[in-house]
Automatic annotation (TrEMBL):
Residues 7-64 form the HTH lysR-type domain. Keywords: DNA-binding, Transcription, Transcription regulation. Belongs to the LysR transcriptional regulatory family. It comes from the Bacteria. InterPro entries: LysR-type_TF (IPR050389), LysR_HTH_N (IPR000847), LysR_subst-bd (IPR005119), WH-like_DNA-bd_sf (IPR036388), WH_DNA-bd_sf (IPR036390). The keyword Cell inner membrane does not apply. This is LysR family transcriptional regulator. It holds the Pfam family LysR_substrate.
Amino acid sequence: MTDLRRLDLNLLLTLDVLLDELNVTRAAGRLHYSQPAVSIHLARLRETFGDPLLLPGPRGMRPTARAEALREPLRLALAALQQAVAPSAPFDPAAASNAWTVAATDYSETTVLLPALAALRAQAPGTRLAVVELNPGRIARQAEEGTIDLAFHTTEGAPPGMRRRALFTERYVLAGRGGHPRLRRKPSLAQFCALEHVIVSPDGGGFHGVTDEVLGQAGLTRRVVLSVPHFLFVRGVLETTDLVAMLPERLLRGSGLHTVAPPVAVPGYEMSMLWDERVHREPAHAWLREVVVRALSQ
């Protein structure tokens, strides 16, 4: 049996052309080799396969039975190899049928994916998008395994080693229902602490957040009376009660809720798009990332 590790790809390319031309001179012209070089290749091929492969004929050369058996498999193998090493074709969104999976919270669904969805559907109508719950501790593994294509997470909490692109910087505002009697103007720090607050606790059940950390540094506390796991539920709570919440400003656009600047300086955060190195140069993936970036820039 011929050892593939000892085969020279250039010899196989020469054999493919020789079997097509059945003439050393014409084969040399197609390969841009000299005629002696092709003859040397043929001699090495005969040694490798233990067969003369091409014999003198009345009008050039005639293949042996072994050469005839090699002709079609060799052509198919070289064509497959050529396709494998060819540069990636440009991505055509109009003809694409990709199915992408992205990991997001309800916050990033609203602030990142929703703005990008119209462009995605218009430009790539044959594609599909699955949104799965963001699990911060599993982002890197899911992306490496290919179970997610993108994830949206704060830059500060992003797993090290992942590709990242910053999308925007978010800030917190104090929000309540329209006509809230305590939010007609910016409350004082004491009034702010006396309000009944709702807090988003992604891990579930927490009554302490970044606002409480800032207040605690000044020896102050606020009244957190409700803890929920999702941002969008908070909007419904604020619309139907007198509770207030410190919420990311982008989440409230078009909500109808009333917002004021808080009397305490709560640091915001940077939102990033994350992906694995293995798909960084893949044309379809690069296109998807640019759709998100362009949508947010508009």
